[in-house]
Amino acid sequence: MDQQFKKAVYRLVSDIPIGRVMTYGQVAAYCQRPYAARVVGQIAHFGPLDLPWHRVVYSTGKLAGGFVPNGRLGQRQLLESENIVVTEDRVDLSKYQWKPIKYI
DNA sequence: GACTTGACTAGAC
DNA sequence: AGTCTAGCCAAGT
Question: Whose CB has fewer CB within 10 Å in chain A, the N or C terminal residue?
Answer without folding.
Answer: N
